[in-house]
Design a protein that fits this description.
Layout (H helix, E strand, L loop, with lengths): L1 H11 L8 E2 H7 L6 H9 L12 E2 L8 H4 L2 H10 L12 H4 L5
Parallel strand pairs: 1-2
Helix pairs in contact: 2-3
């Protein structure tokens, strides 16, 4: 599992400001397309001191993480907006404009 998590972190570290990636996108990028949930587990287990922009990883609908993850959904949104991420009127991220595809 450690190697899986490390591959997740290697991708997540590269997400540029103003962009987001979904859990499923990361899972597909590491060759485990049905492992989006495990990507989520990896994001919750980021080692202390590791600089990974976890706030840029979102679900397939472009929704914010549950409040307990960042302290509140509003905090995650505030951070993303400060980086230039665009939101739709319904509060979801505009994935057409802001989704980053790892290559």
């Amino acid at each position: 599992m450690k190697d899986f998590y490390e591959r997740v972190y290697e991708i997540a570290e590269k997400i540029p400001r103003g962009k987001v990636i979904t859990y499923g996108d990361i899972a597909r990028a590491i060759g485990a397309p049905r492992s989006a949930r495990i990507v989520g587990y990896a994001m919750r287990a980021i080692p202390e001191g590791r600089d990974i922009p976890a706030h840029r990883v979102v679900n397939r609908l472009g929704e914010m993480a549950p409040s307990h993850v960042f302290g509140s959904k509003e905090l995650q949104r505030d951070i993303l907006e400060s980086e230039g991420v665009i939101f739709n009127e319904d509060g979801t991220i505009d994935l057409e404009k802001c989704r980053w595809i790892y290559r």
